[in-house]
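User: For a teaching handout, I'd like to show students what a predicted protein-ligand complex looks like in token form. I'll give you the sequence and the SMILES for magnesium ion. Please answer with just the structure.
Assistant: Understood, here is the input followed by the structure.
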Amino acid sequence: MMSDEEDYLKEGIIDDIEDMNAIIDQFIEYLRHHNSSEMVLEDINTIVEDVVSVEQKHQRTIQLETEASLPTVLLNTVALKRVLTNMIENAIRYSDGAISVSTGFSKQHKSVLIKVQDRGPGIPESELETVFEPFKQGDQARGSEGSGLGLAIIKRIVTTHGGTVRLRNRKQGGLSAEVLLPVMRSSQS
Ligand SMILES: Nc1ncnc2c1ncn2[C@@H]1O[C@H](COP(=O)(O)OP(=O)(O)OP(=O)(O)O)[C@@H](O)[C@H]1O
Ligand SMILES: [Mg+2]
């Protein structure tokens, strides 16, 4: 309905609406309860490979290193893909250069381990816990895209899977986001 003279406004309006949509989508995702009846025994590597292939759309190098023959994990596939997507999109948004995604097995925790690592600025030690709170954003993220819900969603989903998530600044620089998902006794190899 806008006249041609107002054309220059359109792009800005569309961008703002897209940003608002993304925030609303994140909020709905945060409130969503994933049903435990949707839990199935899944191969983590397949899920990680699927998400990494979707995230190739950002034209960033994502190095993938999967450990062969991991035990299966009882999980909600849609929810776990959300966890991985949020982890990878943070690495893309807050760093430049290559990102590395890897899977492995922690004997100590009897859990499958998923790591997303970047070479960005990392997170100040004093904020490593608080960034998991809903709507908490770091200084560099304020006023830009995003709602500060990504990590809160990750934490909620991982916790409902009986797992843990932690963020760690890497010695060589950058952030390591690590998720541990426990393996059921019957499916352990
Ligand atoms: N890989 C990373 N490197 C550096 N800082 C990060 C990284 N991931 C998250 N952060 C910091 O943690 C804050 C919270 O992250 P979170 O994913 O919860 O929210 P967001 O990315 O700001 O918004 P949303 O994920 O809802 O779009 C970010 O604002 C950013 O400051
Ligand atoms: Mg985020």
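For the handout, you might add this sentence: The pocket of adenosine-5'-triphosphate (ligand 1) is lined by residues 26, 86, 90-91, 94-95, 118, 120-123, 131, 136-138, 140-141, 146-152, 175 (CB under 6 Å).
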